Amino acid sequence: MPTTHSNAQARALKLLKAGDEAKPTHGFLDLLGDEEQAGPPTGLAQRLMRTSIVPSIYEQYWRPALGRVAKGLRGPTMAGEVAIATNLLGLRPGLTALDVACGTGRFTRAFGKAVGPDGLAIGLDGSRTMLDRALDNASPADPVAYLRADAVDLPLRPATVDAVCCFAALHMFADPDAALASFARVLKPGGRVALLTSARRTWQPARLADTALGAASGQKMFDRGEIAGKLRDLGFKSVSERFAGVTQIVAGTR
Description:
This protein has nine helices and nine strands. It is of the alpha/beta class and 254 residues long. The protein has one domain: Vaccinia Virus protein VP39 (Rossmann fold, 3-Layer(aba) Sandwich), CATH 3.40.50.150. It has a nine-stranded mixed sheet, with helices on both faces. The protein is globular.
């Protein structure tokens, strides 16, 4: 049966690990309950995502503006990022895609269109206000389900999704290595991952400035090539990298 928002939640529930109970709350599935967030706080950037102001301007102003600063003038636009992620993940009708730290759902909605009515796109985030905004932007016909849960220790059973996307969030996680291992765990054999995260510049004065800025905002600054190496260590093949400003887009196949 083709998936719409009305039954997307039911399909998403079937992918959860045994013992995890998600309560439907205002249109999304909630595994965190009264917890303010999953895991320890990492700094200012993460806290801002839980406010009411940032989610209201995130998709149109906040993320594009900060992204342009981070990526530089030659980096992709937001629409370009969505297209790059969709292509790197090889999304096609019938697949299941997981959008980790989905925010207001810009990528999740696009993935829903790419996988079509027989597929499923799951947007996962720890912020209630972000998910509320994502639901405001959703169409009832979209094959999309939203899940409030831990992005580092994903609540899905092993080998349950065809694609994992995590754009502009890995550097804000308390344990990025655990998150990458979790991404690998939930991917089916042959599944793909696509990540956009920080990339510290190679010139030493710039590296020092990047590190200081990251520390002040609670964001980890990864070295160029570091994330690709971590994916290879986890068994990913066909790993690719592209850099723009202080960002890197890295992808690989499980």
